[in-house]
């Protein structure tokens, strides 16, 4: 049973890494878009747009909180709880 669990965890690592890389790219891209629009005096956006992009930025960052703890033993309980709160609270923003 333990060998089967370790095999499944090992075979899924590449998908976890791809998910983390895509989230990291999204975080950098969204942050760059948000900062560019916010710091540029010529770009005008409604406040709702800023809130929408910032919400996606927070949502993306919340999935990056437990990088390195996604396989193996259970992650730190506090980080896991904080990530859960961020993931489920962000759509309300």
Give an overview of the whole structure.
The chain is mainly alpha-helical and 93 residues long. It has one domain (2-92). The chain contains three helices and no strands. It has helices at 2-39, 47-62, 77-89. Helix 1 (2-39) runs antiparallel to helix 2. The protein is elongated and about 55 Å long. 2% of the residues are buried.
Strand and helix map with partners:
Layout: H1 2-39, H2 47-62, H3 77-89
Quick recap of the structure?
With 93 residues, this protein is mainly α. The protein is 72% helix and 0% strand.
Key words describing this protein structure:
single chain; 93 residues; mainly alpha; 0% strand
Model regions low in confidence, pLDDT < 50 over at least 5 residues: none
The helix-and-strand class reads mainly alpha
Helix count, DSSP H or I runs of 4 or more residues: 3
Envelope shape: elongated
What is the distance, rounded to the nearest whole angstrom, between the alpha carbons of the first and last residues?
A: 42 Å
User: Which percent range describes the beta-strand content?
Assistant: under 5%
Beta strand count: 0
Radius of gyration: 17 Å
Q: Structurally, how many domains make up the residues?
A: 1
Mean pLDDT reading: 86
The major beta sheet can be summarized as: none
| Helix content bin | over 70%
């Amino acid at each position: 049973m333990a060998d089967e669990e370790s095999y499944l965890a090992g075979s899924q690592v590449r998908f976890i890494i791809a998910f983390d890389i895509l989230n990291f790219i999204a975080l950098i891209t969204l942050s760059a878009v948000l900062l560019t629009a916010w710091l540029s005096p010529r770009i005008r956006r409604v406040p709702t747009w800023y809130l929408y992009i910032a919400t996606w930025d927070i949502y993306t960052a919340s999935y990056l909180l437990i990088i390195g703890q996604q396989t193996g033993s259970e992650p730190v309980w506090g980080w896991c709880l904080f990530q859960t709160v961020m993931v489920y609270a962000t759509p309300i923003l």
